[in-house]
Amino acid sequence: MRFDLVIIGTGSGNSLLDPRFADLKVAMVERGVFGGTCLNVGCIPTKMFVHTADIALMPSSSSKLGVDETLDAVHWPQIRDRVFGRIDPIAAGGREYRTDHPDNANVTVFAGEARFTGDRTLEITPNDGSDPVTISGERVVLAAGGRAVVPDIPGIDEVEYHTSDTVMRLEKLPARMVVIGGGFIAAEFAHVFSAYGVEVTVVARGGVLLRQEDRDISERFTELARQRWDLRLGRQVRRVAKTDTGVLVELDDGTTAEGEVLLLATGRTPNSDRLDVDRGGIEVTGSGHVVVDEYQRTTAEGVWALGDISSPWELKHVANHEARVVQHNLLHPDDLVAADHRFVPHAVFTAPQIASVGLTEQQALDRGVRYVTATQDYAGIAYGWAMENTTGFAKLLADPATGQLLGAHILGPQAPTLIQPLIQAMSFGLDARSMARGQYWVHPAMPELIENALLNLPLD
After folding, report:
1. Does the pLDDT value for residue 460 go beyond 90?
2. Omega into 352 within 30° of 0, i.e. cis?
3. Residue 51 bears catalytic tag
4. Model confidence over 203-241: pLDDT tens digits?
5. Which of 51, 101, 332, 443 is catalytic?
6. pLDDT value for 168
7. Between the CA atoms of 223, 229, 393 and 386, what dihedral angle is there, to the nearest 10 degrees?
8. ∠376-381-384 over CA atoms, to 5°?
């Protein structure tokens, strides 16, 4: 079966098709559910859980504001079912739209596993067990995403464990949970479950949590995390074993951690290996990410890639941007546009929230970049007084000669929202002095944190 366009993956890949593709014969291949990681097991459900966790955590700090609150109960089934009662129909509706709607009469959906057998040629093994089907495409787009890593730990095959793919659908809340990992996923789920009353132990190899963040951010976050969780940092897991109540985790220092639930939060890996991309002439990096150029073209003629399968950032907003780039380039092969990865922001929806864009201070030092830095505490602005926030801050790095922002890092309430004007300034070349002085800042709103941080920069 030959197609004009084959799309593998229905996360951001599903957004490629619009009426401009109606004259093409299109194949879409999906091994799982429509919507990809973000909709089903990533950004959207986790943030719905995070919002609920933030509310559950409020009584723990309300007394310092003169308000006595109590958390009476956490109804896990109701929380879980609210999330997936919203999400599961969206995934099902996405498939139904592509398979049954008249707008998609030119689209054939294959539910199954695709593997390359040659140049732009794939064998699809259907999920229903029927005979494999071979298809080819004039052009192919790889948008097959990634999956959770299961580390090679002695005993892991003999115990029950969860990843971010499964932990949100637990039947009931455990009394204790052990989280292995110290990155985004570990920080967010440790926050969620501890806010619901679960005793959480976090085991990580590094000496701090979120060690890829600016050092000041990771150190402050680790300090605050110690107040909520049992942190076992700088430790390696020697082995895991099943117990009558759950899982025992033995560490290399001779200590142990025990929980009813074991969550593996040790990162994600691209799905390129599941596609046999080498047989399609498609190169990958050492991490397994598909190699692409600035236009999102792979090393194979007529094959494009986007999202987690090729992006080291592995972020939904990056995948969406790359999907728009690929869409344009498919429609306008003689007028290609390049992806813009200059200032890719990210956020960690833990407690406190974290957001970052651009260089960290350690990266600036390692690269020999000339910079100045400034920090503004939430405690130094009026809205920070209102919240009695004594731990949050914003940190900026800028070129001392031009005032151009090089990096921005925020730890505290609404950090992912507060960082947006800084992303905008970096993207459009607005220098720090012009940004601070060239507009009004609402007083006493929280963005004054950014205004003051800009004004604190010791520029030439």
Report:
1. no
2. yes
3. no
4. 999 999 999 999 999 999 999 999 999 999 999 999 999
5. 443
6. 98
7. -120
8. 100
